[in-house]
């Protein structure tokens, strides 16, 4: 049994089958199946019931699951702890897709210039996947929004502040308004960022707190698509001020909300866990250079 097989097993469980796991692991389904069959032969038990349309864990597979999770965590902790003994340790940072809007790209560039001896990789992911990656040591640090952040589990450094505003077409009835309340938007069609983004959760929760469920007619991960649809008067959007200012459109108007709904960008790392030397250097750099 090797750690790759453990990872394969856990991915199948997470994805609910061999097909989705193979896609996630970037290997063929036949290769994945052969690896699991080899693991089952070594253990002397069947881990998956393949007799039904949807693959399910056998009783032995369910028993193995907790051990597999522990083995994976031990392996990840081992790799992390040994990282500082390498002559060169790569600093791995995850970020939500806002590196330009909040100046993160400039911080990264400046750090690389100040510390050319530290290899750095910056990976963009949706918010829902970033903190689990941090928990499993796939990344050392992460740039995320502070909304819903468990501050008992993570230490953080505030990088930038932002707040929601209403974005409407220049042709919209609200276009001349100087401010507006959320409750006034309950009859509007909303153009939103997709589920899985913290931005989506903030907007939906804010609307619910104002007493209504937003009518979502379109969702996208692309700011340009959202702004373009708003410009055509296909609906309105709630957007962070600095995100909007970065992607302004001549046919779109931003209106301040009466309610103050904040969302700050923070650099986070695991609380009560040793950070790598490279991660520590980046945290110290950010503390000195935050604008």
Which helices and strands occur, and which strands form pairs?
Blueprint: H1 3-15, H2 18-25, H3 29-43, E1 48-49, E2 56-57, H4 59-82, E3 91-95, H5 104-114, E4 120-124, H6 127-135, E5 141-145, E6 154-160, E7 164-169, E8 189-193, H7 198-209, E9 215-220, H8 223-231, E10 237-240, H9 241-246, E11 252-256, E12 265-270, H10 277-289
Helix pairs in contact: 1-2, 1-4
What does the model show?
This protein is an alpha/beta fold and 291 residues long. The protein has 3 domains: 3-82, Orthogonal Bundle (Arc Repressor Mutant, subunit A); 86-160 and 264-289, Periplasmic binding protein-like II (D-Maltodextrin-Binding Protein, domain 2), CATH 3.40.190.10; 164-256, D-Maltodextrin-Binding Protein, domain 2, CATH 3.40.190.10. The protein has 10 helices and 12 strands. The strands form 4 sheets. A 5-stranded mixed beta sheet has the order 4-3-5-12-6, sandwiched between helices. Strands 10-7-11 form a 3-stranded antiparallel beta sheet. Helix 1 crosses helix 2 (18-25) and helix 1 crosses helix 4 (59-82).
Distance between the termini: 50 Å
- Helix and strand run: HHHEEHEHEHEEEEHEHEHEEH
Name of the CATH homologous superfamily of the largest domain: Periplasmic binding protein-like II
Proportion of β residues? 15-25%
Count of extended strands: 12
Strand order, main sheet: write it out.
4-3-5-12-6
Instruction: Give the overall shape, derived from the CA principal axes.
Output: globular
Instruction: Tally the helices.
Output: 10
Name of the CATH architecture of the largest domain: 3-Layer(aba) Sandwich
User: What's the CATH first level of the largest domain?
Assistant: Alpha Beta
Approximately how much helix is present in the residues? 40-55%
User: Based on the structure, what is the oligomeric state of the protein chains?
Assistant: single chain
Report the sheet with the most strands, covering strand number, pairing sense and barrel closure. 5 strands, mixed
CATH third-level topology of the largest domain: D-Maltodextrin-Binding Protein, domain 2
- Rg, please? 23 Å
- Tally of distinct domains: 3
């Amino acid at each position: 049994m090797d750690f790759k097989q453990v990872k394969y097993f856990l991915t199948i469980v997470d994805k609910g089958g061999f097909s989705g796991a193979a896609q996630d692991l970037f290997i063929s389904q036949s290769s994945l199946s052969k690896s699991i069959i080899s693991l089952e032969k070594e253990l002397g038990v069947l881990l998956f019931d393949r007799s039904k349309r949807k693959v399910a864990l056998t009783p032995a597979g369910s028993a193995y699951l907790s051990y597999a999770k522990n083995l994976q965590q031990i392996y990840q902790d081992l790799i992390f702890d040994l990282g500082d003994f390498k002559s060169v340790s790569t600093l791995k940072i995850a970020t939500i897709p806002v590196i330009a809007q909040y100046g993160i790209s400039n911080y990264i560039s400046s750090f690389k210039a100040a510390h050319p001896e530290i290899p750095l990789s910056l990976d963009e992911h949706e918010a829902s996947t970033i903190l689990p990656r941090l928990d499993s040591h796939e990344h050392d640090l992460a740039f995320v929004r502070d909304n819903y952040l468990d501050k008992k589990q993570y230490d953080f450094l505030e990088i930038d502040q932002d707040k929601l505003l209403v974005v409407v077409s220049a042709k919209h009835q609200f276009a001349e308004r100087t401010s507006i309340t959320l409750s006034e938007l309950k009859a509007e069609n909303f153009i939103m960022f997709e589920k899985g983004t913290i931005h989506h959760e903030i907007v939906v929760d804010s609307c619910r707190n104002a007493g209504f469920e937003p009518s979502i007619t379109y969702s996208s991960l692309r700011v340009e698509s959202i702004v373009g649809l708003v410009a055509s008067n296909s609906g309105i959007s709630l957007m962070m001020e600095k995100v909007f200012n970065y992607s302004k459109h001549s046919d779109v108007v931003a209106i301040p909300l009466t309610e103050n709904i904040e969302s700050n960008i923070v650099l986070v790392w695991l609380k009560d866990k040793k950070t790598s030397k490279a991660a520590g250097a980046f945290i110290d750099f950010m503390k000195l250079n935050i604008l």
